[in-house]
Sequence to fold (74 residues):
Amino acid sequence: LWIEARFSLVRQYEGRGLVGEKYLLENISNALMVLAEQEFDRESGNVAGIAIERHNLRPGETTSVYVIRRGVAP
Fold:
């Protein structure tokens, strides 16, 4: 995603034409990281929703990011 972050898929959920993904994002830079949902939208246009637990991360902090997509799992 970015060189200032470690972004890992933790879990994937499937059902009723939707795929939910839970990611763990860690700020590995030395600066404050400010996150916005728009940064996680994909070009394919099948993203139905995005939620970020914590929008401001100090160095070394983590947050969960949830992405819901229409369609089947990749």
